[in-house]
């Protein structure tokens, strides 16, 4: 009896391991808008759904780091669902208070951009498996606008 249970567990584990899962990438991080109290960045997360039915996205959590310091964290609850058998682009707004940006003056003064590392956790509700989190990590730089860009 124990052998039968062991074989059944191995069979189920193998089948679940080979189930196609959605894949995601962070395609772009840009300066979105400047407010009185914060600067807002916009991260585009592209998610490919291999299933023939839409999948609900439970939440998107993020951590934005610059110069080794955490400058923003947060979650976006219930951002919608992924289109069936298609690519869905989620827009993730990331607000950074001006007071934190002032601590990055050295980095900004060096090359007039902000070097960043963005860590995103995309939690999707997969049938049978349950909640599944896709971890994403991307590094890059956001160029700041110059006076010539404004005119």
Description of the molecule:
By secondary structure, the chain is an alpha+beta fold. Helix content is 21%, strand content 58%. The strands form two sheets. Strands 4-3-6-7 form a four-stranded antiparallel β-sheet. The protein has a three-stranded antiparallel β-sheet with strand order 1-2-5. A hairpin with a 3-residue loop joins strand 1 (23-34) and strand 2 (38-48). The longest helix has 16 residues, at 2-17. The radius of gyration is 20 Å and the shape is elongated. The mean pLDDT is 84.
Please write out the topology.
Blueprint: H1 2-17, E1 23-34, E2 38-48, E3 55-66, E4 69-82, E5 87-97, H2 98-102, H3 105-111, E6 113-126, E7 130-143, H4 147-150
Structure characteristics:
151 residues, alpha+beta, four-stranded antiparallel β-sheet, 4 helices, elongated
Structural class: alpha+beta
Task: State the shape.
Answer: elongated
How many E strands? 7
Percent helix range = 10-25%
- The strands making up the biggest β-sheet line up spatially as 4-3-6-7
Uncertain stretches: none
Mean pLDDT: 84
Cα-based radius of gyration, to the nearest Å = 20 Å
Strand content: over 45%
Distance between the termini: 78 Å
Order of helices and strands: HEEEEEHHEEH
The biggest sheet amounts to:
4 strands, antiparallel
> Count of helical segments?
4
At a glance:
This protein is an alpha+beta fold.
